[in-house]
User: What shape does this take?
Amino acid sequence: MNRKKRIPGLMLLTALFLVLVGCGDNSEETTSTNDGGSEGDYEIEVIAKGFTQQYWTAVQNGSQEAAEEFGATINFVGPANETAVQEQVQMLSNAVNKNPDAIVLASLDVKAQVDLLNQAMNNEIPIVGFDSGVPEAPEGSVLGTAATNNKSAAGIAAEEIFKEIEDQLASVSVENPARIGVLAQEANSTSIVERSEGFIETMSELASELDNIGEQIAVVGHQRFANDVNESDAALIIQVQIPANATDSEVQTSAQALLNMDNLLGVFSSNETASKGLLNAHEAMGGVLGSDGIVAAGFDSGTLQKEAVRNGTFLGSVTQDPIKIGYEGVRLAIQAANGEEVDDLDVPAAWYNAENMDSDEIAPLLYD
Assistant: This one.
């Protein structure tokens, strides 16, 4: 039996009046993310690359900040790690099927997501990229990207390392070559690949200006980055070291193999995971990095890396602005949801060392 209560006429009129009054002024409506707040005007799906690094927690904080400011509900998700391509594909599929106002995406593998990107475009769901973005996406499927120019950012580390080892490089030869290492956790992520490329390109350009080196620079260790110069013909060897799997233990093993190589003057680690692996290898080997040993520089932040910069184990590191990347990704998504034009946005990177890491400009960019 239907037991719904009947509302007397006067009560019905009163209820209607209250509803109309309540709808008359929304100027003080509270909006926030879906993490414990009330529902906003926009529903935005945000898909990160993983949560193994504290970097993504900072990105999430920036995304939440924008959601609260502009009135959005965000669903911030990411796979277990940056090699879990199929897990992220499923997350993108779930997001498209929800038909949100917009999607923010840092793709692990665009080729694996092409059909979903086209589906979103056909369903008129705007997509914007952040962090490494969605490179080589189908035309028109991604409207803009908030990201750091990773090649230029890694070039900063190359410049700083070069300053430290330039005098040593000035005396090398084919008979007595020097080696500089690049440690990366994998060779699939666009951002990590671009950082490796940016470091190699800038270091090669700087070193080639030395008369004793010139074009005698070999890039070895991984086919993706190798050039046409044989190691036996090189005065400078840039050694790219990448583990078979992006686990902490395998990254550390690769780092130890690199640090054991002859005539190694410097090492660049291309993200937080690679920097942790390099520092763990350094510790396991009794300490080989620092001003009296191999010059090292990293990328990103995190507790271990910050301490290494502070105590001189690392010369310094390059940091992005993860909070701003997350913030701008959601802001661009809302802009796209409103039908407004969206352009790519370059979020600058910065070099930090023991002297400036506590400054007002740099400290907010460093996460634990």
User: Anything to note?
Assistant: Residues 1-39 have pLDDT under 50 and may be disordered. The chain is about 40% helix and 15% strand. The first strand starts at residue 42 and ends at 47. The CA atoms of residues 165 and 265 lie 7 Å apart.
